Structures are given as structure tokens and as C-alpha cells.
Amino acid sequence: MSAQNIAGLDRLFRPRSIAVVGASASESKVGYQLVDALRGFDGQVFPINPKATQIAGRQSYPQLSALPVVPDLVLLGVPANACVDALTEAARIGVGGAVIVGGGFAESGPDGAALQAQIERVCKGSSLRLLGPNTSGYTRPGTGCHACFLPTVQQFAAGPLSIVAQSGGVNLTLALLAHRQRLGIRLAVGLGNAVDVDAADVIEYLAHDPQTKMIGLHLEGVAEGRRLYDVLSHATTLKPVIVLPVGRAQVADFAQSHTGNLMGQHAVTVAALRQAGAIVVDATQSLVDAAVGFLGGRIAPKANPGVGIVTGQAGPGLIILDALRSAAVNVPTLAPATVAEISKHLPPLTYLQNPIDTGRPSPLFADVMVAASRDPAIDAIITFALDEPAAIDAVAVFERARKDIKQPLVFATLGLEGSVDVTQNKLQSRDIPALESPERGAVAVRALVDDAKAQYRRLITTRTVAAAGRVIARALDEASAKALLAEFGIRSPRSRSCRNEEEAVTAFDQLDKPVVVKVLDPRIAHKTEVGGVHLGVRTADQLSAALQKIDAIPGDISDRGYLIEEMASSGIDLILGARRDPSFGATVLLGLGGTEAEALKDVSIRLAPLDRVDVEEMLRELRGSALLDGWRGAPAVDRDAIIDAVVAVADLMEAAADLRELDINPLRCTSKGVQALDALMIWSD
Amino acid sequence: MSAQNIAGLDRLFRPRSIAVVGASASESKVGYQLVDALRGFDGQVFPINPKATQIAGRQSYPQLSALPVVPDLVLLGVPANACVDALTEAARIGVGGAVIVGGGFAESGPDGAALQAQIERVCKGSSLRLLGPNTSGYTRPGTGCHACFLPTVQQFAAGPLSIVAQSGGVNLTLALLAHRQRLGIRLAVGLGNAVDVDAADVIEYLAHDPQTKMIGLHLEGVAEGRRLYDVLSHATTLKPVIVLPVGRAQVADFAQSHTGNLMGQHAVTVAALRQAGAIVVDATQSLVDAAVGFLGGRIAPKANPGVGIVTGQAGPGLIILDALRSAAVNVPTLAPATVAEISKHLPPLTYLQNPIDTGRPSPLFADVMVAASRDPAIDAIITFALDEPAAIDAVAVFERARKDIKQPLVFATLGLEGSVDVTQNKLQSRDIPALESPERGAVAVRALVDDAKAQYRRLITTRTVAAAGRVIARALDEASAKALLAEFGIRSPRSRSCRNEEEAVTAFDQLDKPVVVKVLDPRIAHKTEVGGVHLGVRTADQLSAALQKIDAIPGDISDRGYLIEEMASSGIDLILGARRDPSFGATVLLGLGGTEAEALKDVSIRLAPLDRVDVEEMLRELRGSALLDGWRGAPAVDRDAIIDAVVAVADLMEAAADLRELDINPLRCTSKGVQALDALMIWSD
């Protein structure tokens, strides 16, 4: 599939010949603009028009089948209802790719959806790859191949960034921001309705494109999340991928179980993207700023890379420090030897720690940067100086520094147009990113650091499914759910499952008091609400009262029994849940338990399967993680046992394909281990 | 003070004559650059140099006292150790203001601190106002008055934005970003070490400057927070103030080295700024983007203003919607009549709700915007369109729309340099903000909305101190603290304060069981940790055991007694605390109680005194506020009682000047009211 996808997309995105169906001689029409946009294209262009002989200076043909060659690509500039026939004809003669820029399909109502279903059928029945409909198309500045009618794209320069955007408008937005940042574009694709070619397809294609050095991805929603996750997981081993997922504000979907409530779709998407090694940003400008940071390459994989800050002005340096520390980026203290070396190059009274404040910008910046780069704790350097050509020649400084520094460098600056632009151009042509503001510089260096952390995580992670292939019997009530969890190593307090009062009395005698008495009934999912849970039962009388109350719960009691269970010792409660996301597949959620914490939604989410390293990171992500480390003098809980339990739940989700939802709430954590105090499983119909 | 401050700063910031002490004929020296920077100044300039006769084309004088007039302003271009004498001389002859740009003062160590103390004494003993030391000075493009040696400032255009920055480097950063945004500058001030003139002084001055339309403020730490709060509270009634407070992360070490200021508690600073009606941003670019949003004026005060989004491209429109909704900005559904009106101007199949997606940019934008503006729910409109001169003339569209629309408008766009710049220039000269990216447009419109909300809050708020002037006796143990709280209307469960076992037994008989038995001892602040709290005491034997354990707590027992208190019914626990911040004065904290929530630090902070409106907002700020509204079927708690209690605590802090800290933890909240279950008060020595 992969090699076939790449070859197919190569005809779509790197055509030698292009036909434009619906070509027009009228300059105001899309059919003209599409032909005109190809004026710099270095291959053949064939306008198709039943009547014309010449369009935009090129010989025109009446129909696709009249062409002297089968074109690699066809651009459809005809209305929605004419697209089906044109696309069918293109597929028939063996065209490689097609782009439908126009709208009027699924986004516009039932009639459009019917048309879209028809073009989808055409695509499924052929090897032709379709981009769109309802997109601004794509642009490839290196070959002048602009399958896009907006004149702006003619100005774009070729370069290392490729863009994939769900929206054609955002594709152009990102491309323009890259252009303004003087970051050239290899390929920029707007997916539109994505009837055939989708984000995963293009990412896979770009991962294997040697000239694409970094990939920017814009997502509005993810239909086949697991496939995208798999493709991204591979792509990020080859080059950095920066993703802007829109939809923070979307209301969480209201699933049945409450772990479903905690797990909003956007949170799952962000977790999956990070887990796949992508860098997640929250603004179009940040995507471009993160991308340009990789001009000089990636930081080698490392658990916690350190950043050195060199600044000519203390205030902006402080802003960079604040931005990096707020994003959990390590700005380490420099070694005494480093400080001693730096102090040789600077006047006294300057701050020589990290940040290194030079007091004023000066040519000595290069020496300071080189000295800082020799500190073993420094994996990247960000330097800030206002653009003052009279005080500092930034290009000369960085050229000199670059020779002696292996680590990535980022220059943050600010100045007057016409002056700072020249500096930026020169530096970036030497692969040194130059960004205009302290915060934008911080975004770039943070992306380098996040990428190195993600690569490191991958190196030390193996996500194997221990229980793969194992046959799992459906657990329908709490007792059998706990038994199944026990098979996966997650213990519960000692208990007895009882069918009647006699068995309950016997069980009560055998267990340590107090016990909890619960209803066992596969029809009752929410036991507490109906009076099916009785805590702190110490005496025979209390037991008898509890059993009577359980018997009094309305409903069919033919399958009803009792669970008599020892009370667990106190500790910290977590929620451990899992569910099968319709897009991303098996997901695991770990959160802080207790009423207040649930209201605060302090949770971390991952896709299954999981490695222990993943779970360590999940624990760090919990805002309330300090509770686990010995809060206010309490003993620290057994983190290893928590990690085992979370990995086991991921494993169970992988092994039991028909397990739809799983909810351990609470998972009681103490210094001696963890126990599932309640367990609910929901199976597919 | 105010009128005097304004008059004094007017001589500093609007001088008619300027002397430069340390003027030099050598172009590489600051003493030359300071004179040269005044080449466009429309007043008198006097270089001071004992030897020269002519500097930078101007007649030079040997000393200040030799000048033909007493200058309004003196710029000191001499080393730190020469500044004391020069400043003393300036003060003696009646100079109005001085600027020390150089460093070498408190930021550089003990010797510099001593010099700084000397110049501080000179300022205190005269009416001269000093800016600096250790600053880039200030720039005032309208009069060519650049008390700043950086050549860049010569390019700045005059306009409506004034800037006050703690750091000289950030002052220039903000001014350059404003310049790049084509937003002109009225006055841009870098405070540096702020020996005399501080942020509050300049804000007060700018509040009364008619040409300053919006104020941008950068803070690294706040020494006199309460004064700044008071000044800002007034300034924001007159014009919008946008603040960038640095210090989210732990950056205090470096900050201290840089301006000599101690970094305040960031959460308190942010709370105080918002409470004062300022708009808080987290990046330099955002400060400028928020400021430019006010070019067309403010939104009238309103509880929850609505924003209309008109977009030529759906994807960027969705990004704007997401950014606004994430920031709790109301993007309301349009009225059916509005949709009907809009539909007249657009082709079918477009999305006519909010956002209004026009499908493609077109001249019809103006009609759509006008129709949207007539919807009563719409208080501001943001329009996005990529810069496509062939498809849309944005200037013509907005000129037409502006005529019929009263609400503020924001244009978000993106295009090629040289094209979009022209549009931006033309629109902004017509007071229509134009920002380059969807998110930057969202920042501008969000600022308009946040400002209108803050103004509205002020209109409906009266922060009076009900207990002002009342004499408060110090409460030293829990019983007396609860008695004092009761005087302020905050009840506790029924209890008896007992000196000995006999009284305890009597009290136990009189109270409803179970009770809690606690140690009463002003020397014991943390009762639970030493075994001084015994819950659920139901029998005489349990009482006796509890009393014995309390007696066994080590230490002097001469003042020790018992508090016997009825157990409260269950509910939601809050933490209600107050403390006297060294910078901001009395602060009140409301947070979610319980171990987990405390670890999650879900708190809201305000300065006392408080209005009920403030507390309603504090409750909304709590991430876990849903717990109060009937969580999972529980009855909603009595919000009014919570609000009463918080207002009362603020009142108590205002009334009892020697009450340093107060801690009600927990404040038990039920549907029937609130009760302080524990209370701790710490008084000043």
C-alpha cells in the first residue's frame, strides 16, 4: 500500500503533463486562472475546451481523449455536476491524478453529498488519485506547478517546508506565513473534502520525499485516527512533523460512562499526535515558527535537552526564559568552567549564568555562544539581540559561531523592515533560523527540544502486546470483571461472590471486617445510585440489613447476587479507564480520582498499546501528580504498581477486541501497591 | 500628589529644552549618540562638555550652570560614579527631569547599590523626576524627543499607543512591534531600575494624556502593587490598558539581577491587574495586537458582548472561532431575521450562521457585515479574508461598511508584503485595525470583549468596607477565631469552648452527637498533625479517650483547653483564605477544598475589599466550579452564602489591619448555607 500510495501521489504532485478540463479564455473564470497559474510550469499543459483552439497562449484540445499523451494530472475547472463525467473519462484513459477545486459537494447539502458519493465511486474503481473537492488545490514552487487558481502562489519560493492542511484556506494561510518568514515551500496541499487523498496519504508521501525537511499539518477532525497515528509514528522518525489541531473549544462528547465524559475528542487527538512523535502547536504562526527552527537540523534524541540563552538585552532574555520554563523546557545552570570561559569575553557586572546577559549586543556574541556550546548540558542555543547594524553584524557573528558549534542555533531579533529582513534572509540561507520576537524564538527552540524528547522516548520504548492472541471471556459483572483484571495482574481486595444469603454469611465469616457489600447484577451499571453499595459492614446485623436493601432494588432479580469484599486501606485514588475511540481505536485514560479531581478533569490519555515509559510520562502530565510522591508527609505510593496496571489495561484492550469500555474507579494506590476497588466493563453488542 | 506627579512628568516627558551631560564629539560614544538622537527635536538642545565648544552641530557648554536657561530635562551620558554629582547639580538649578541610561547601579552588586542609594537621596530631596538608571530611556516620535541613543527610534511614527516597560529592551521590542504593525507611538518609556519614576507614575500621567488612546504596560515585578492597582483602576476607566506581566515560570534569580526588583507572586499580580480592569496578555506581539484592536474605540460596557465572524475562507474562520471560544468569548447564534437578511447577499449553500462563511471574498462583504451588525447580539465584528486584490478591495469594503456600522471592526488578513501592507496602512489610517493572521485578529477582538466586560463589572461594582473603623480584638485560638468570624456573619457548627474535663463532659451532654473534639491552644497551629483533632466522638468513653490524647500533646499546657463541636453534615469543601501581600496588600483566596483539589491548586485570588460581583466571578474562575451546581445529582450548594462569606473575609481583612493571615479550611458548603469547620488566624507581631 505504502509504495503504491507514494507512486500514485507522485503522479498527482509531480506531474510531467497537466490537462485543465473546463479551460476558458475569459480571464475572470477559474478555467482561465487554472491554466494561467501554470505559466511557469516546466512540463506540458493542455487546456481542454470543446470550442476554443487557444487559451492563455497554449493550444487547446476539445476533450481528454484527443490529447497527444495521457496527462499525469487533470485539473477540473468545471461545475460540481460536470465533475463526475470528466473524472470518469480521466480515469478511463489512465490519468494519474486529478484536482477538483470547486465546491458544491458534501459540504453544501444532500444533493452535493450525492455527487460526492459518485466521484468517490469513480476513485474507488480506478488507480487515479483525487485531491479535493472543495479545496484551493496545491502549490509546488520548485517546478512552478501550481494546481491552484490564486495568483499569490506564483510568488512563493522553493524550500524545505511541506504543508498539508485540511482546509484550502489554511493551506494558503500557512504558506503565506512561511513566505513572510522567508521559509521556502516544497509542497503545500489543501485537502478539502478529502474524498480520496487524505492527510495520512500525503504525510506518508512527504515522509519519503528527500527534499521535504519538515512537515506542517493542519487538522480539523480526524476520520481514520489510528491510520494517521501509524503514518505519523513512522514519518516523525524521518523528519519533524508539526501539527496544528483545531478544536480546543469543542464541547466534549457525552459518552455513557464517565471516563467517556473525561475524554474529549480534542484531548484524544492531541495525545495521539504527541504519542506519534509530532510537535503540537496552537496557532498558524507557531507552526511556521516551529518549522523554521529545524532549518539547522534536529537535536539528537535526549531525555531532557538543555537550552542556552544568550541575550543582548536582559528584558527580552527574561521573556524567553519565562516562555521556555513555562513549557517545561530545561534551561540549565552552566558549569563553573563554562562561566569562567564566558567571563573572559564579557565586561564585569553582567549576568553570566543562563541566560547569559551580555549587557549590550557586540561581536563578542560569537565567542560567548561558542563557550556556552561547550557546556555538556547545552543542546541548543537561542540568542536574542535587537537589530542594530551599528552595534552588531549578526550574520558575521553567526557565521563565526556556526563553524565551532554543532548544536542547533536560533536567532531571535526585531528591527526595522528593510534592515532586519536582510539579516533574516542571509542567516536563513545559511540554515540559521531568525525569528522576529522573543516569544517566536522561544517557540522555535521549544520545538527543537520537544522533538528531541519525542525521539528519545521512541528509542527507549517498545510497545508490545503481551496478551496478543489470548482468548478473553466476557466479564459481565463486577466480580468477573475483577477476576479478568486479576488475570492481567491487577488485584482487588479479598472477596467472595455469593448467590444467596447463606453464602454471604459464610463469606462474611471468612473475611476480615469491616467489609463492603455490593449488588452483583449485570443489569446494574451504577450500583451506588440504586443503593447497591454498603460500606463498613462489621456485624451480622449490618450484613443482614445490607442484603435486604440489595434485594429491595427494583428489577428482575433472577441473576442478582452479592459481592462481599474486604475494605481496602486508605490511599490515593486514581481513575483508570479505557475506551475504543471510533477514530483512534483503543485509548487509555489515567486520572486523579475523588469527586473534586474528577470535576477538575485532571487526566492523561494515550493510545494502546503502551510501554512503561509512556505511563511514566502520563503520571508526570497529571497536574496533581505531587499527591503520589508523599503529599504532606504521607508515604509515596507505589508508582511501579500503577505503571504495571496501566500497561495491563492497554494490553487487555488490545487482546479483547470486543471490550468497548473499561472503568476502574477507584484504583486505590498505597505504598504497598494498587487495587481495583470497582470495575465496570462494557462489551460490544 | 496626582496633579503634582502629572506636572512633574510633563517636564520630563514633554521638555522644551534638553541638556546632555557627558556630551561627546566622538561618534562611537553614548554622549554623542544622545545629542545626535535629538536632531529632529523641536526644542532647545544643550550639549554639556567641559572642553568642547561644538558637538553634533550644536553649541556646547562647560557646565549646567552656564546654560542660558534652566533646561526642563537633563540626559546623563556619564559613568555611574559621575551621575551623583551631575544629578545633584541639576536638582540644585531647578531642572525638571533627568534620564540616566547607563547601568552599574543596584543590578550590578553592592557598589552599584550604594551609588543607587545616593541618587535616590538626591531625588527625594528635590522635585526633579528621574527616569532610570539602567534603561534605554524614552522616545516620543511626535516631537522628535528621543531620550534614547538607539538610532532605530528615529523611524517611529507618532500615534495613539503609549508604552511603559520595566525593561528598556522590552520597551524597544514593543515599540518595534507596534511600528511593524503600523501602529504609531505617542510615548514609549523604559523604566529600568525605577529609582524614582515607576510604572504607576507613568500610567497616571498617560491616563490624563489626551493623545494616548491605549496604554501598553510590561511588568517584571511589582514593588508597590497596591498603588499600581489603584492607579490602574482609575486609568482603565479612561482608556484601555494592556499588560504583559512576565514571570509565569520560576525566573526570579535572573529578574533580580536584571532590574534589582523582587518578583512578586505571579498569580496575585495577574488577579490584581484583571481586577483593576486591565487586559492581561502573555506575549509582546499579543500586547500590540490587543492595542491595535482599540483603534476604532472600545465596546460599550456589557456583561457578555457578542462577536460576529465573517470569513471568506472557512478554515481560518474556524480557527478564529476556536480561539475566541477557548477564551470564553461569546460568538452568539444570529437571529433568524439576521440570517434572512444576510442570505440576500450571498449565494446559496454557504454557512450563514456565526461564523458567516461567504464562500469566497467578494465586495458583498460590506453588505454581510452591515446585516450582521444589526443583530442585537453582535457587539463587534471580525472579518477574515486572504489578501486578494483581484477578488476583493478590502479598503473599499470597510469604508462602505464603516459608514453603517457603529460597533468596532477588526480585519484579519494575510498576503504578500507590498500588497497587504498597503491595505493595512489605508485601513488603519481610517482607524480600522488590520492584523496578519487569524489568531492575531482573534487577540484583538478578544481584547475589545475583555475590556467591555471589565468596564461592565466596574459599573455594577461598589467595593465598600462595611466594617471600616470597627475595633477588632485579636482572636488567638480556633474558638475565638470562629467567634470573630461569626461577628462577620460566617457561622460554624454549634460548639462549646471548655477549660477542663468537667466542662467538656457538660458540653458533650448538651450537643448533638457525634461531635469533634479539638485541642484549643494558641501555640498549636497545626492541630491534626499533633493528634489534636478527634472526629466522630459518640460516647462518654470516646470523649474521655480524646481528652486524654489532647492532654498528652507535649508542651506547656497552661493555656490549653478543648473545643467540643457538633459534626457538620457532608457537602462540598472550599478553602477560604486571606493574606497581606507585601506588595498588593490584603488578598483573598478562594479554592476548591479536599486533598486532591489542593494538590491541583484550583484557586481564584482577588484584592480586598470585594463586591459580590467579584466573588461571582471568582466562583466562575474555579475549574471545578461545576461541583457547586449539583454535581452528579447532589443538590446545588448555596452560592449566596459562599459569596457572603468571601465578602465578609475581605471586609475583615480591611477592618483588622494587624490580621496577617486567615485560613478557613474547610468552609463546608451545602444547599443550606456554609460553615467554617476550622479557622486559623495569624496576627502581626
From TrEMBL, chains A, B:
<dbReference type="GO" id="GO:0005524">
    <property type="term" value="F:ATP binding"/>
</dbReference>
<dbReference type="InterPro" id="IPR032875">
    <property type="entry name" value="Succ_CoA_lig_flav_dom"/>
</dbReference>
<dbReference type="InterPro" id="IPR013815">
    <property type="entry name" value="ATP_grasp_subdomain_1"/>
</dbReference>
<dbReference type="InterPro" id="IPR051538">
    <property type="entry name" value="Acyl-CoA_Synth/Transferase"/>
</dbReference>
<dbReference type="InterPro" id="IPR016102">
    <property type="entry name" value="Succinyl-CoA_synth-like"/>
</dbReference>
<protein>
    <submittedName>
        <fullName>Acetyltransferase</fullName>
    </submittedName>
</protein>
<dbReference type="InterPro" id="IPR003781">
    <property type="entry name" value="CoA-bd"/>
</dbReference>
<dbReference type="Pfam" id="PF13607">
    <property type="entry name" value="Succ_CoA_lig"/>
</dbReference>
<dbReference type="InterPro" id="IPR036291">
    <property type="entry name" value="NAD(P)-bd_dom_sf"/>
</dbReference>
<keyword id="KW-0067">ATP-binding</keyword>
<dbReference type="GO" id="GO:0046872">
    <property type="term" value="F:metal ion binding"/>
</dbReference>
<keyword id="KW-0808">Transferase</keyword>
<dbReference type="GO" id="GO:0016874">
    <property type="term" value="F:ligase activity"/>
</dbReference>
<dbReference type="Pfam" id="PF13380">
    <property type="entry name" value="CoA_binding_2"/>
</dbReference>
<feature type="domain" description="ATP-grasp">
    <location>
        <begin position="482"/>
        <end position="518"/>
    </location>
</feature>
<keyword id="KW-0436">Ligase</keyword>
<dbReference type="InterPro" id="IPR011761">
    <property type="entry name" value="ATP-grasp"/>
</dbReference>
<dbReference type="Pfam" id="PF13549">
    <property type="entry name" value="ATP-grasp_5"/>
</dbReference>
<keyword id="KW-0547">Nucleotide-binding</keyword>
<dbReference type="GO" id="GO:0016740">
    <property type="term" value="F:transferase activity"/>
</dbReference>
